[in-house]
Amino acid sequence: MRRVTFRRPRLPRTRRGQRRLVQAVMAGCVLALLPATWMYVAVDDRLRTAADVPRTDVAVVFGAGLWDGEPSPYLAHRLDAAAELYREGRVEVVLVTGDNSREDYDEPDAMRGYLTRHGVPDGRIVSDYAGFDTWDSCVRAKKIFGVDEAVLISQGFHIRRAVALCQAAGVESYGVGVDAVHDATWYYGGAREILAAGKAALDAVFRPDPRFLGPREPGVERALATAEETLG
Q1: Within a 13 Å sphere around the CA of 90, how many CA atoms are in the beta-carbon half?
Q2: Distance from CA of residue 168 to its chain's centroid?
Q3: Directed axis angle between helix 156-168 and helix 184-206, to 10°?
Q4: CB count in 10 Å sphere of residue 96
Q5: 3-class DSSP assignment, residue 183
Q6: pTM of the model as a whole
Q7: Using one digit for the tens of pLDDT, what is the confidence trace for 84-108?
Q8: Distances from the Cα of 15 to the Cα of 1, 25, 226, angstroms
Q9: 136 — phi, psi (to 5°)?
């Protein structure tokens, strides 16, 4: 069997070549960080706390994984914030959006069950079963569920991207970043966001259709009508 050998890349030997290499690396780093910089600048004035976020009819909670069929601790923190906003009368309806691409994995139903156990009536919860990523969730909130304005709830490392993408999708958005323990998941999420920022910028520019769009659903409209009847 012929042995395959790999040559180690050679570094430039001249100062001019080394300088060009450094410049190329620096240019690559700048280009890689541009999307993240765009996100920070674009949404800085739209980040709020649960205490001062403007009153809005709809809150959107993004999925963040399940543990043995129940919301992961990160997702539970997001749902706790949504339940708090509902109890305080800052939102009337909660749209839970997540992955239900297979029968044994159902984020939206797990999120619904958690919210009902924490005081949010079932009739005020709307499920999006095709929120496969943040862009899909934002586009579907607008095109499928008719959401024009919303409070978005996620961890701090993700909320800027969520607000930037929902703004690009036509949803007037404010973001509430919930607290999170700085564990391995937090550090992974922060590092992942640097890479995800590039895709987010492309989504905002080219605005592709979600993986699954489907027909318009009246769930949010009906839930808001129920809320108005209750208030009346």
Answers
A1: 21
A2: 13
A3: 10
A4: 30
A5: coil
A6: 0.84
A7: 999 999 999 999 999 998 888 999 9
A8: 41, 15, 72
A9: -60, -45
